[in-house]
Amino acid sequence: MISFDDPSWIVIPIILPLAAGLLCFLTRRWAFAFSLAASLGNLLASGILLKQLLSVGPLSYNVGNWKAPLGIALRIDGPAILMLLMTAVTGLGITLYARGYFSFRISGQKKIGRHERQERFFWPLWMTLWASLNGLFLSADLFNLYVTLELISIPAVALAALSGKPASQIAAFRYLLVSLLGSLSYLLGVVFIYRTYGVLDLALLGSKTASGAGIGAALALMSVGLLLKTALFPMHFWLPPAHANALAPVSAILSALVVKASFYLLFRLWFDVFASTITEPALNLLGTLGGVAIVWGALQAIRQQRLKLLVAYSTVSQLGYLFIAFPLAYLEKGADIWAAVIFMALAHSCAKSAMFMAAGTIFLHAGHDRINDLAGVRSYLPVTVFAYAIAGVNIMGLPPSGGFIAKWLLISSSLNSSQWWWGLIVMAGSLLASVYVFRVVSRFFVIPEGYHVPDRQPHSPLLEWPALVLALVALLLGLIAPYPLHILETGSSLFAMVSQKGLLL
Amino acid sequence: MTARSTQNKRKRFDPVLLLVLLLIVFLTGLLVQVILATDYLGSGLGDDVARFQDLSGVESPVTAVLLNFRGYDTLLEVMVLLMAVVGVWSLTRAPFPKKPIEPGPIQLAVVRLLAPLMVLFSFYLVWQGSHLAGGAFQGGAVLGGACVLMLVSELPWLKNISSRFLRIGLLSGPLVFLGVAILCIVLQGTLLDYPQEWVGTLLLLIETACAVSIGLTLACLFAGGRPKDDLSGGRKR
Asked: Distance (Å) from the C-alpha of residue B171 to the closest C-alpha of chain A?
């Protein structure tokens, strides 16, 4: 009855975590079982969708069998499937880590009730957030994308506040305000588009290219909204406190996945839908802000005294690379537009979630995350420290990591298009990144004289191994680099193809 | 010391605020100009909605768009509302007063009269949604109003409502909606592609369940926290 060619596989990554989220809220006892089942099912569905994409090309699916202008379409092309797979792999790692994290804290018998509360509400929020992330990657409708953005930001804010400490609640409240402002700005842009063209479908909009004051304003409003959510310098002010004060699995989710979603949408709008409207000054502005973000974020990361804040500022810095790609992608054609961005997103997602998980494990065992007092951690958390170091290799962009491939693509494309200054910033950023990575790693590995190794607290392997596996995935991404590029080439011509066939009723 | 500093704060003129104000005024002016200058090419999707109205199973175009043509949006919106409640529950317990306050006789009489009427009216609104203005959101709002009326009257039994009962109520809408959506895949092969002979009934079922959820959602947001037995499993009663 169920065949691998069934077009309905495309909705599984949305409805499976959604159903799991509802059930997790209903019963607390089976929450992890439901979540794990949804994570594995989601990975399976993503794999099947990849197989379908490779055999027949980009897929399109009309929800409720209503065709494009009236109904909502879901689409899968190369970038979408890679983002889907990224979320599936990182999400599975985070799900397993969260299990180890919460069971370790609950077994600690400190502050009974608080940890139960955190675990009880983590699962439904995380599953729903995951469903909406997948929904955003798959959606091809401007208003439906707004709904998925909302369904991302509400659980994300609730997760950021979950730790219950005043600092995290203040940060989460600020995050809520920024996120709502971003959503409303995006919605105002959608209103302009709908009033001008009368359609919301991305492919139909891509075929109706006209420029005017309304479209310019719409694109500006939507972009500002999404930039706020993506935390591009100088709109990054909310990110470090919100990501650093959250619980470790939550920090991993927010830093690895949530900021990528709004970025993906922004890139898609600029280069797939409104490609004819964008101008070179706007691209250069984004590239410049990205360049400043790389340097500023890295300098701030070097200055931090707390490990989680350092990792959070590193996210600010790494997001800058994604925006350097804007002026470079403008001159590229076809699949190459997406290549550097997708590699950066994939590698950063795996590496950053591994870093936050490692930081969380160290925090749990040491009781603090002051970098200066963390000497000798490797004596009792060897796997975690190893994972942190490997993730650091990826953040610095050393071969063979995925981060190296991304930076290589950026630098070579900056030289090819004779915009060498962007390449210079990328290299400077890598140098600064190595400073903040080595500053921490060197302390981890050195055992000071007269150091008393603390007793190793018993904990489940889930607390250490998911971080290492994700860090290794990021490291080995560079070795299989041709494969993602092949996927991108198969699926990138979606928008041209769909508009030729015509989607009208 | 504190008094002086607050006074200083009041007197001090913040140049940053002025800059922000100027920026907002400038952007608003720009926005107004763009709204006036935009030329509207398309006529929207009103004609398409009218063409397919007969197939949607309801007579009201708003309900047809919300639950049939763009039902997927509404499914996610219902989830957004649920997530708002989950978020509030994750933060704190509902702040009910320790000592029960005896409501006045007039207030009690009014609540006894109004609350059932409002519940009745909310379901009337849901039913009316199939052919006129109305539907799950309007009905749910009135239902939520009824619950808020009971909450402000501080009826003593409200704080003893068990968490499981509330959760089932809150989840009824999303669960029924998602269940129907999955049922459509099994029967028709496409998400939310309602079978033509059942479409009216299914839409009414979804709307009723969603109205209950939305009403409870609004009431729970007003109560401002989780019920007291949500984590302890009734231990602290």
From this structure: 7
Distance from the A347 Cα atom to the nearest Cα atom in chain B, whole angstroms: 30
What is the longest distance spanned by two Cα atoms in chain B? 75
Burial class (CB in 10 A: 0-12, 13-18, 19+), A5: exposed
Helix (H) / strand (E) element for A61: namely strand A59-62
Nearest CA to A128 among B182, B86, B35, B168?
B86
Q: How far apart are CA A95 and CA A123, in angstroms?
A: 9
- Portion 64-93 of B in contact with A at CB < 8 A: 68-73, 76-77, 79-80, 82-84, 86-87, 89-91
Q: Cα separation of A374 and A447, whole Å?
A: 10
How many whole angstroms separate alpha carbon B67 and alpha carbon B59?
Answer: 12
Is residue A163 predicted with pLDDT exceeding 80?
A: yes
What one-character-per-residue DSSP string does A75-115 give? EE-HHHHHHHHHHHHHHHHHHHHHHHHHHHHHHTTSSTTHH
Q: Which residues share a beta bridge with A201? A: A141
Rg (CA), chain A: 22
Interface list for B 116-135 with A (CB within 8 A):
none
pTM for the complete prediction? Answer: 0.93
Q: Is the confidence at residue B8, as pLDDT, over 60?
A: no
Question: Which whole number is the average pLDDT over A459-486?
Answer: 90
Contacts of A402 (CB under 8 A, 6+ apart): A343, A346, A347, A350, A351, A394, A474, A475, A477, A478, A481
Q: Mean per-residue pLDDT for A156-163?
A: 95
Q: Tell me, what amino acid is at A122?
A: F
Rounded (5°) CA angle A385-A458-A118: 85
Q: Which of A130-134, A172-176, A177-181, B44-48 has the lowest mean pLDDT?
A: B44-48
Quote the minimal CA–CA distance from B178 to chain A in Å: 7
**Cα B207 versus chain centre, distance:** 13
What is the rounded (10 degree) CA torsion for A70, A74, A78, A82? 150
CB within 8 Å of chain A, chain B residues 149-208 = 167-168, 170-171, 174-175, 178, 181-182, 184-185, 188-194
Q: Rounded CA gap, A169 and A477, in Å?
A: 36
Average pLDDT over residues A14-32: 94
- Give A442's Cβ-side CA count (13 Å radius): 6
Contacts of A144 in chain B (CB under 8 A): 70, 72-73, 76
Q: Which residues contact B19 (CB under 8 A, 6 or more apart)?
A: none
Looking at A58-212, list the stretches that DSSP marks H as alpha helix, in order from N- to C-terminal side.
78-107, 114-138, 142-160, 166-197, 202-207
* Backbone phi and psi for residue B62, each to the nearest 5 degrees, phi listed first: -65, -45
Interface test with A, best of B191, B220, B229 (most A CBs within 10 A): B191
Pairwise CA distance, residues A147 & B175, whole Å: 19
